[in-house]
């Protein structure tokens, strides 16, 4: 069967089907949509209470699909890192169950951990070792025999090849971040956790990382990233989850989320400033700027009627003339802020 | 067993020893040579023979044991404490590796370094005094057993410590005094009966005695007792490490 045909049957025709051998092998039917495959990670009733009594997670249920980029958003202390820590084996859960590729993370920890690569939030690297040594060490730690060819590819992909003999302590923060990614990729994981991958890195490196993440996804790697940069999730994620105070409050396809919750705003720049909104326009959801020179109309772009025609007619009837107009789609950041605010 | 992981940890730790050769090997050898100068030349000129063995040669097993104990603890405690301190322990904890494999990797490397150091000190000693080893296999057994046991003990300290100060606390305040008072430089038979009885509560006495017996065929206590005590310490340390991993003590939140 050709890849083209497979692509036609997926629910996301715009994106190439991730024809990774493991993905196809694991799927009951390679023709079924990606969403119908068994999830690569399944989290059920997961809770975590630390010794201090702080409850970091509250009965979290979450499924991560194979081959997707999943962005987990949440304010500081929401439980993102705890959730990742439990899946990776760093933090012990209080209750609940996590499976990776169908294997329980506790009963079959060797199988599950071998599938996972983790890039931690902090720049926790060795100091005195060389880049080559530390990446090779990581590969060995995950039970794989030395493969200089693979390590070389990873280092070249991350623009670290020239630095392979440098001690890590001599590298910049951005380079250290790349080293952490190289370590996580050294054992060819199927699932990659990126915990705040671009925190404190410059724009160029951030875009490099975005490219890398997309390339990994195209190779069949499932990527789960937590981030404070909402634009990062907006740029890359297939699905978005929002966690707040240890609870998953929303999981949605990013496009669907934008469609459902996305608002659009029409801003009209008036030729003459207004002191107050004319009563005839009170029926419209209009905001007048402080200097009276701009009217902002908020509407649902997916709604049956946007109300724009009626607004423009009423504006004309009221004798208001404008010199320019612009529309603006609400960003994922706006949606995120609204969501977190709503539940507060 | 995840042997590639054990190998990776072992080689990584051994590489650290090569990077710090001056501290790992040269410094202990210089210290030992100074002990020979001070004890061998200064005291040895007055105290020529102990239990039929020239004093300079008599102190060799004790000197090796002193370095073996302190370096085993230092190597193993630093080996596991530093990843905890720097945060790189996340990688060990998230790897498909069991506690047994982690211990084999770290403790194996620490013990290997100590054994090499012990042999280097032995070779250094041979330059100063005439040596004989009556029971070489027993000597090797005590050397390995002590290195492994105290590396395990160091590993426990490395897991327990939550600061560099604590890392030094046990070796400096407990292990070194016990070693000095454990018959490294004298036979406890030379002590008054009360102090001799108190010395028998010191576990290091049994290790030094057994090790010295393997050299000269005589010790402060029977070699079987020394061996039994060495195994007992090993079991205690293994028990502690097992408990620490089972509970995730200072490793997992």
UniProtKB/TrEMBL annotation, chain A:
Source organism, top-level taxon: Bacteria
Record field: transmembrane: none
InterPro entries the UniProt entry points to: AAA+_ATPase, ABC_transporter-like_ATP-bd, ABC_transporter-like_CS, ABC_transporter_ATP-binding, P-loop_NTPase
This protein's record includes keyword Transport: yes
A molecular function (GO) term: ATP binding
Keyword check for NAD: no
Residue span, ABC transporter domain: 41-270
Keywords: ATP-binding, Nucleotide-binding, Transport
Annotated segments matching region Disordered: 1-22
SUPFAM superfamilies: P-loop containing nucleoside triphosphate hydrolases
Family per similarity comment: Belongs to the ABC transporter superfamily.
Protein name (record): ABC transporter ATP-binding protein YadG
Species the sequence originates in: Methylobacterium isbiliense
Gene expressing this chain: yadG
UniProtKB/TrEMBL annotation, chain B:
Domain of life according to the entry: Bacteria
Cellular compartment(s): Cell inner membrane; Membrane
Chief location bin: membrane
Residue ranges annotated for the ABC transmembrane type-2 domain, each copy included: 19-248
InterPro entries: ABC-2_transport_permease, ABC2_TM, ABC2_TM_bact-type, ABC_2_transport
Alphabetical UniProt keywords: Cell membrane, Membrane, Transmembrane, Transmembrane helix, Transport
Membrane topology according to the record: Multi-pass membrane protein
PROSITE patterns attached to this UniProt entry: ABC_TM2
Keyword Acetylation: no
Regions crossing the membrane: 21-43, 55-82, 89-109, 115-133, 140-161, 167-187, 194-215, 221-245
Homology family: Belongs to the ABC-2 integral membrane protein family.
Protein name: Transport permease protein
